[in-house]
């Protein structure tokens, strides 16, 4: 889970940097690509957080 969180956060940061560079360079396509990457990272992070919350901590004993 920590690896997925790190990857999602890295994707967000790289998306912000790409969007910023696209705006500075005047390249709308690069800026849009950075925004898409940033949103994908935020979605991945939300999925990881949802999975962490839904994992039961104490499993009931199995058997009859």
From TrEMBL:
Top-rank taxon, per record:
Bacteria
Supply the name of the protein: CsbD family protein
């Amino acid at each position: 889970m920590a690896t997925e969180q790190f990857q999602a956060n890295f994707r967000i940061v790289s998306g912000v940097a790409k969007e910023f560079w696209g705006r500075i360079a005047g390249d709308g396509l690069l800026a849009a690509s950075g925004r898409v990457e940033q949103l994908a990272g935020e979605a991945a992070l939300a999925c990881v957080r949802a999975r962490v919350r839904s994992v039961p901590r104490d499993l009931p004993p199995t058997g009859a």
